UniProtKB/TrEMBL annotation:
The chain crosses the membrane at residues 12-34, 202-225. This is PepSY domain-containing protein. Keywords: Membrane, Transmembrane, Transmembrane helix. It comes from Microbulbifer taiwanensis.
Length: 241
């Protein structure tokens, strides 16, 4: 009976400590399983991510780009809103070049950032606001490199698009269901800062304590059934004694 008493105490006190987290694991796990990941990623919100480049006969030659920029690492021809552009990457970063005039247009301003976001957006609403984020990024950007234009839409999803001012590319999109998913993910892995480290010490400690509580409960279950079998084997008189 000493083992049963010890197991009962371990199970009770440990579960008092980890019970709330066990409930949060369950609730967050249900949300993450029920929600479709493509929906969470915001695939339904975007279009025109890969446009074919047309009319490439009158473009500035790449040889001239190599003369204008030093230490060129790569040159990419892409289409933005049906117009051809070069993205030149060198030691100073990325540069967006009008492929017909050869004029650099990066970093793009808020008006062009909004126009590009509306082009990427699959809905009908115009962009509501544009904000250049160069420091103190929101947690939903995680480790994305700054600066980025944040373009918000007043739709039912609370959609935000993040556009690179140096390339015009849509870096990522966020909406309220994604934000809820990210919140539940934080609760699930118990990383309340970066929301990315699934090997953090707090999660490890609570997981071990939860396992110990479950094992103690299994021991109690074993003794409970053992006691019940013993009582049923007694005669009525012996059981009342």
């Amino acid at each position: 009976m000493k083992t049963a008493t010890l197991s009962r105490k371990v199970h009770k006190w440990l579960f008092l400590f980890v019970g709330v987290q066990a409930l949060l694991w369950t609730l967050s796990g249900v949300y993450m399983v029920v929600m479709d990941l493509d929906f969470i990623h915001g695939d339904h919100l975007v279009e025109n991510l890969r446009e074919p480049v047309s009319g490439s006969g009158d473009l500035v030659s790449t040889e001239s780009l190599l003369r204008d920029f030093s230490s060129v690492e790569s040159v990419q021809l892409k289409s933005l809103r049906g117009q051809p552009y070069y993205v030149v990457r060198d030691g100073d970063g990325a540069h967006l070049i009008d492929a017909r005039s050869g004029i650099e247009i990066s970093p793009i301003d808020g008006g062009l950032a909004k126009a590009l976001a509306e082009h990427y957006y699959s809905g009908e609403l115009p962009a509501a606001s544009a904000e250049l984020i160069s420091e103190n990024p929101p947690t939903e950007l995680q480790s994305r490199a700054l600066p980025l234009w944040r373009i918000d839409f007043d739709d039912r999803y609370g959609t935000s698009f993040y556009v690179d001012p140096n390339t015009g590319a849509l870096v990522t999109r966020r909406h309220n269901y994604w934000r809820a998913f990210d919140f539940f993910w934080m609760l699930h892995i118990m990383d309340y800062e970066e929301r990315a480290d699934i090997h953090n010490p707090l999660l490890l400690v609570v997981s071990i304590l939860s396992l110990a509580s479950v094992l103690a409960g299994l021991v109690l279950l074993f003794y409970s059934f053992g006691k019940r079998r013993k009582e049923t084997s007694l005669s009525p008189a012996e059981a009342r004694a």
